[in-house]
């Protein structure tokens, strides 16, 4: 049966305040006409970036029965998309989920959410990084930010980077399993005050780059929003460079919609003001071959 709407299993936490993980992923993919089936990994009162004293309910114990029910129902997915995970056991459950539900037309996207700006998130451990390295071997696409790429490779975080070095990193990451490696928030590689998203497709041996002017600001949750637009765009049938471009354009629009207000960054970007743009056709693009 051809489904009228594509379906994604989204394995992420639900953080009630701060527009990250499921509270960003569900509205973005729904706006793009994709059905989101969440597998909640944990419930937090807020995300862990720049909030203290948040409540955290780990849902690991309920995940296996939840997944088993879906398996019995024979639900199949066009995409499995995982993000923030709360423990080593959870990483292993996601790995099992992929084994159970994978089929030839299923896109497996692992966003190895672990760190940013050179630092691991407070709930992450070295053992989880080690297990994340195993999980990415099962993905078709991974979307680490620059810090996470360094952690996955066991490299030092250093923003002094050049084209040759980032290309070598991407090839090494693809050798760990995924066919497509996308690194976000890559610092300036040409001294032109840009920040870039760079992608490497192993099968075609091609690098793509989408740059945007560096905006000196940081909002949590933009990684989740970027990967969600990328997933939605690929499921709509776009090419990889167009999907990258749409992701970057959306995040840029979100940041611009938020930056002009005196708005606490930890509350995330003003998604609600920009969501509608996801329904518009692409009228310009700026991707390039690297
Ligand atoms: O946006 C990534 C993310 C997801 N989930 C939780 C987080 C973060 C980043 O801080 O804390 C709980």
UniProtKB/TrEMBL annotation:
InterPro entries: PM/HMP-P_kinase-1, PyrdxlKinase, Ribokinase-like. One of its GO terms (cellular component) is cytosol. It comes from the Bacteria. CDD domains: pyridoxal_pyridoxamine_kinase. GO terms for biological process: pyridoxal 5'-phosphate salvage. One of its GO terms (molecular function) is pyridoxal kinase activity. Its EC number is 2.7.1.35. Keywords: ATP-binding, Kinase, Nucleotide-binding, Transferase. Residues 30-261 form the Pyridoxamine kinase/Phosphomethylpyrimidine kinase domain. The keyword Endoplasmic reticulum does not apply. The keyword Transferase applies. Pfam families: Phos_pyr_kin (PF08543). NCBIfam families: PRK07105.1 (NF005491). This is pyridoxal kinase. It comes from Clostridium liquoris.
């Amino acid at each position: 049966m051809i489904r009228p709407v594509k379906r994604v299993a989204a394995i992420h936490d639900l953080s009630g305040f701060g527009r990250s993980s499921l509270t960003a992923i569900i509205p973005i993919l729904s706006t793009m006409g994709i059905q989101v089936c969440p597998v909640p990994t944990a419930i937090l009162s807020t995300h862990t970036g720049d909030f203290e004293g948040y409540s955290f309910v780990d849902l690991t114990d309920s995940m296996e029965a939840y997944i088993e029910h879906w398996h019995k129902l024979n639900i199949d997915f066009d995409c499995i998309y995982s993000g923030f995970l709360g423990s080593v056991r959870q990483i292993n459950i996601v790995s099992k989920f992929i084994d159970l539900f994978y089929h030839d037309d299923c896109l497996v996207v692992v966003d190895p959410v672990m760190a940013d700006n050179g630092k691991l998130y407070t709930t992450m451990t070295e053992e989880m990084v080690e297990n994340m390295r195993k999980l990415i071997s099962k993905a078709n696409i991974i979307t680490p930010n620059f810090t996470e790429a360094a952690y996955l490779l066991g490299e030092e975080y250093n923003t002094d980077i050049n084209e040759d070095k980032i290309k070598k990193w991407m090839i090494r990451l693809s050798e760990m399993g995924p066919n497509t490696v996308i690194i976000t928030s890559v610092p300036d590689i040409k001294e032109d005050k840009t920040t870039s998203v760079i992608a490497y497709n192993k099968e075609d041996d091609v690098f793509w780059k989408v740059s945007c002017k560096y905006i000196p600001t940081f909002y949590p949750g933009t990684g989740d929003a970027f990967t969600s637009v990328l997933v939605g765009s690929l499921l709509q049938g776009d090419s990889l460079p167009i999907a990258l471009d749409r992701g970057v354009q959306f995040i840029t629009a979100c940041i611009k919609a938020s930056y002009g207000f005196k708005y606490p960054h930890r509350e995330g970007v003003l998604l609600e003001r920009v969501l509608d743009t996801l329904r518009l056709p692409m009228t310009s693009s700026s991707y390039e071959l690297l």
